[in-house]
Give the backbone structure.
Amino acid sequence: ETGVTQSPTHLIKTRGQQVTLRCSSQSGHNTVSWYQQALGQGPQFIFQYYREEENGRGNFPPRFSGLQFPNYSSELNVNALELDDSALYLCASSPTPDSSGNTIYFGEGSWLTVV
Amino acid sequence: GDSVTQMEGPVTLSEEAFLTINCTYTATGYPSLFWYVQYPGEGLQLLLKATKADDKGSNKGFEATYRKETTSFHLEKGSVQVSDSAVYFCALMRAAGNKLTFGGGTRVLVKP
């Protein structure tokens, strides 16, 4: 039990639609990151949010966007869904944005299938 | 850029066998190194970590030593159990920032 909760756990969307995934970070953690894990691969960093602003981004197109709220919870939004967006989306929280060696806690993930 | 390479699976073992999963990395500076485990249908759990050269991380019988000279962080366990069946990911994080860079994962299957 990491204290990081994600919703929904599973969802199916049609190509071209939009999706919103949600994450509640562990108590006291002000930094949230999102990762995409395609089937059979390692997670890939999408972006990080700190103090309600984007604080680093991986190699993902602008149709991947996010929000962080004053309570540190976060949303990942994906527009114009493509079949290749089908993946497990993992939320991770940490106590600060910039300290090496911090333990990063992951949620159980949201499984997105695009048909 | 940063990268992590780990041995491809699946690795199939009998219970009580010795497990080694190789991991090497490429990164500037002195990153922290991690092993995460993912059980079927679940998210990632931190297994162990090491933050500087020659550090040994250990947890649940698993060990890994940060070798700067060979840029490696191999995972070992002396006697595996069926419950160790999972996918194991090696990862690094630079000193600045909280972005994890993962390897492709190694599936381990332990048979009774």
In short: Chain A touches chain B at residues 2, 31, 33, 35, 40-45, 48, 56, 58, 90, 92, 94, 96-109 (CB under 8 Å). Chain A has a mean pLDDT of 92. The radius of gyration of chain A is 13 Å. Chain A is about 0% helix and 50% strand.
